[in-house]
Amino acid sequence: MRALDRKLLRDLRRLWAQSLAIALVLGCGVMVLVLATATERSLTLTRDTYYDRARFAEVFATATRAPRSLLPEIARIPGVAQVEARVAMDVVLDMPGLARPAQARVLSLPEDGAPVLNRPTLRQGRMPTPGSTDDVAISENFGLANGLHPGDSFSAILNGQKRQLRVTGLMLSPEFIYLIGPGMLMPDDRHYGIIWMNEAPAAAAAGLTGAFDDVSLRLTRGASEPAVIAALDRLLAPYGGTGAHGRDRQVSDMFLRSEMDGLNAMALILPPIFLIVSAFLVNMVLSRLIGLERPIVGLLKAMGYSGREIAWHYLKLSIGIGVLGVLIGWIAGWWLGAGLTRLYTEFYRFPYLIYAPGSTSFAISGLMGMATVVLGALRAVRASARLHPAVAMSPPAPPLFRRGLLDRVAQMLRLRQTTMMILRSITRWPRRAAVTSLGVAAAISVLVACFFTFDSIAAVIDEAFTRTNRQNVTLQLTHDAPTSVIEAAAHLPGVMRVEGAYSLPVRLIHGPQSELTSVEARGADDMLTRVLDASGGAAPLPPEGIVLPESLAAKLDVRAGDSLRMALLVPPRETLEIRVSALMRQSLGETAHLSAPALFRLMRVAPQVNRLNLLVDTPALPALYAAVKDAPAIEGAQFWADIRQKFDETLNRNLTTSVTVYAILGILITVGVIYNAARIQLSERSYELASLRVLGFTRAEVGYVLVGELMLLTLLAIPPGLLGGYAFSALVAQGFTTDIVRIPLVISRRTYALAALIAVAAALAAALMVRRRLDRVSLATALKKRD
Amino acid sequence: MTGKVVFRAEEVTKTYQTGAAPVRALRGVSLELYEGELVVLLGASGSGKSTLLNILGALDSPTSGRVTFREHELTGMDDDALTAFRRDHVGFVFQFYNLVPSLTARENVALVTEIARNPMRPEEALDRVGLGARLDHFPAELSGGEQQRVAIARAIAKRPEVLLCDEPTGALDSQTGVTVLEALYEVNRDLGTVTALITHNAAIRQMAHRVIRVADGRIVAIEENPAPLPPTGIVW
């Protein structure tokens, strides 16, 4: 090994703590990049493989009742490869041991065996015996959560009749990778599942013998999905078609996609901060090292080493740090990626999992990591190459201090000389002070943006559970009913207030834009459910016109006051011209709102309801549960307190982990910056500080000069850090907003305070760590050594 | 002594623009150094000795005038050429040794032998200055005299044609100083290396072939010494 390389290795060993601090920050950036891309790639690969093998459909549609004779016509639509029709219905279940009624979606299985499309995977037991009326297969997690195994039985209300069903097997389906019940926010395996049964009993129960109400299509390669959807809509319209859609509105696929979008956003937003900070750190440390080694640089030049050789020597040092950081990031990213992918299987049900991080994410992150350290080193390295040998070997001139405004102010304030040393050091080396301060500011920004996610989730919860939905039970009715059911529902156990609502599928059209969505019609005086104006306050429902969520309005390119066309997907199936009366804030989902009188006037039908919102006295809930389980007119029920509890449980479970991880990321940056700044100060000023000790200053007083400057820079970092945090949070909110949930940009004071506090504490710890070295500096040696 | 001319400086000036007033370190110096000779430069602090030595060694460039090394004109060479010149022809010894603290004696010498065209082995160079037994010691483990001898070994290991020494004994006591001078004397005698040696110590002039006195950026006198003494014969 060349002598110069030997020096390099020994330099790295001597600077190990500083190098490691930089490598860890760099490693974080690399790790996040690998983690996000590896997980995203694995999930995509797993999903695509599963979709392909299980022949997951591409177009989906529902109708009220379509004859089977329509199927050949559907199959003849240009671009359709395969058609699968079935019976689907929502049912309420009475599960042994569950107080609250569970719900399920019943799907029919073709009599001739397994479905052609959306083929379920059998995980336990067998498929229902052909011809059997009571055999069912159920979704695996619903079975596991309720302790149901092949051979067990449970009861369900099918078409008003309570039926005993026998479990033959547990299954997974590509349609329900993310299985979430209507109106729920999180999967609830105990209370929601899928039931597959033979077609004859299912059709009989749904009153659909010889007919179907659910159809899935697989398309030929190159087929136009919108054209197929339009043709299918035309065919199904006479039979109560509610609007066909592609995978983009398939609930399970939507959730999966939004998760992947989130991972992509994470890979784009977080790493740059870490990489930029590492570049600054490399620059800081290398500049100082080269500063300290000026005589050696001069000597090497005197010996005949060229500027390029010397630059390369110092560049290799930063490359060494880069290699370490990239390796740390790779290993952590690979390991955490596997863990995160496994964690996803808790929420996303795949029959198998392919963890394939792929070499691309490693290659890209490695290149970015190395580019970061090289860029960071470039300035310092170039300076080393340009250093003139004669100048390099003469001792550096003492730094030039000037008296300025600061000094006059300080004099007026009668500051102590040690404080003056701190202030002069900052004003004398403003670039270095700025780098230190901005590094800490970056850490604070990362912390704000990480903790902000909790604020935004809290805001979404507050909006969903407190401001808009103040009922504690919502009941879905099997069929549209006259408003007299509101009166009847008031007699259910514990009911204090009832409000009816009517929800219907529509297609909203504005110019070339068209969106499939649902409209909810409510009374003007309703108090339980409310709409929010753009600022989040409750707003009355205008008597005329449609109210759109901001995001939906943006997709349709309409503003309040504009007109759009609304195609009703239920009878009378007309397309109406309607004015957008207002825009509303809605974080979860995209539902349009309309006043009930206005809607029914437009539809020219008597007012009706298909959903009831109830305010129920909590002690009476068990009695209400029992009533719901036996009520054939109810196809589903949402119990808001339970939804919230499930939401909070999941959140709290992840909260501690997340806070810890995020805090570690922020602490790493702060420590990396402050530790390096402190070590540089110490090496540069040990002579000066030792002189103070000789003059009779105590250790604490001398430590104050070192720690005081760093803490002052940390405090100065707080305002830009919080500001950066706000901007960074806006990016995160934008990056993580999907069709399912819009992340509001809400940052609490607590988040700001916590971020600043963590950074200050980490900075103090790092500075004190270095201060301890000050105690070990031998006064005699420090005074003799002048570098 | 009138061998072939190795260095020729003609009307060399050097002005530093530091601070408010320009500092004129050299005010027109003309000088020739011949093959195989050992010259001593004497002069007070700030007289311009070091500047002259730095310019001869291509560590610094003159403001005006010409410097030639054999047939090659140094003034006007670009940085790469000057680097190559230092690498191939010049060895430096400094007052404060300038060893790389993280490298051992052998490795400090290897720093030079790795890039030189026809070097001796580091061990041989160290042997020549009497440090054959301390090859693997770090600078911090060596005495001042030993460190300076490592620096000399490092300077001669490339078999330079010129050895430029800036106060090599300045930081040493007299006894140690003698051993260091001894090493330089032997290198000059055995290898015929042109050696220029800056010193404050007038006694050292006794080992030189010529003594050049410098004052106020000018050469004020050049004395020939017909009978140079070995360092052991010098008393100070």
Gist of the model:
The complex is a heterodimer of chains A (787) and B (236). By secondary structure, chain A is α+β, with helices and mostly antiparallel strands.
What does this molecule look like?
- The complex is a heterodimer of chains A (787) and B (236).
- Chain A has 787 residues and is of the alpha+beta class.
- Among the domains of chain A are: 58-250, no CATH class; 429-470 and 640-787, no CATH class; 495-616, no CATH class.
- Chain A is built from 22 helices and 22 strands.
- In chain A, the strands form four sheets. Chain A has a six-stranded mixed barrel.
- With 236 residues, chain B is α/β, with parallel strands linked by helices.
- Chain B is built from six helices and ten strands; from the N terminus they run E-E-E-H-E-E-H-E-H-H-H-E-H-E-E-E.
- In chain B, the strands form two sheets. Chain B has a six-stranded mixed sheet, with helices on both faces. In chain B, strands 2-1-4-5 form a four-stranded antiparallel sheet, covered by helices on one side.
- The interface between A and B is medium-sized, with 26 and 30 residues.
> From the structure provided, what is the oligomeric state, counting identical versus distinct chains?
heterodimer
State the shape of chain A.
elongated
Major β-sheet of chain B, in short? 6 strands, mixed
Strand percentage of chain B lies at 25-35%
Low-confidence stretches of chain B: none
- Summed over residues and divided by their number, the pLDDT of chain A gives a mean of 88
Helix content of chain B: 25-40%
Which regions of chain A are unreliable across 5 or more consecutive residues at pLDDT < 50? none
CATH superfamily label of chain B: P-loop containing nucleotide triphosphate hydrolases
Q: Ends of chain B: how far apart?
A: 26 Å
What is the approximate shape of chain B? globular
Give a short account of the largest sheet of chain A. 6 strands, mixed, barrel
Q: Secondary-structure element order of chain B, as H and E?
A: EEEHEEHEHHHEHEEE
CATH topology tier name of chain B: Rossmann fold
